[in-house]
């Protein structure tokens, strides 16, 4: 069962790393998705890419899982509120609902991992 949990954690993390890389390679696409009230433009997109890559690495190497997953859930919530919900009301909103539901599911997964994760016990804490 432990190997399945590791596999699940890695499979959960990989898309965040790839999406984070896409923030660097497809910055213009992400700029088109941003609403006008988000500051920073391309810098915000690049910062988001860095955060997603760092979250992916953290989850895969099993370090700071609770902090990372709660932070990831907060970031996904910000995406939902500032990008996906306003995107529902744009003329070209064919994929907005799919993106909204995807980020809601990922946010739920991040919260579940954070809540149910038991950090590895060290020798000094085992009794």
Can you walk through the features of this model?
The structure is a single chain. The chain has one domain. It has helices spanning 2-25, 27-33, 42-60, 65-87, 96-116. The chain is mostly helical and 127 residues long. Helix content is 74%, strand content 0%.
Features:
mainly alpha, single chain, disordered C terminus, 127 residues
How would you describe the oligomerization state of the chains in this entry? single chain
Q: What are the secondary-structure elements, in order, as H or E?
A: HHHHH
Give the class from helix and strand content and strand pairing: mainly alpha
Q: What is the number of strand segments?
A: 0
Poorly predicted runs of 5 or more residues: 122-127
| Count of helical regions | 5
SSE topology sketch:
Layout: H1 2-25, H2 27-33, H3 42-60, H4 65-87, H5 96-116
Helix pairs in contact: 1-3, 3-4, 4-5
Can I get a quick summary?
By secondary structure, this protein is an all-alpha fold. The chain has helices spanning about 1-25, 25-35, 40-60, 65-85, 95-115.
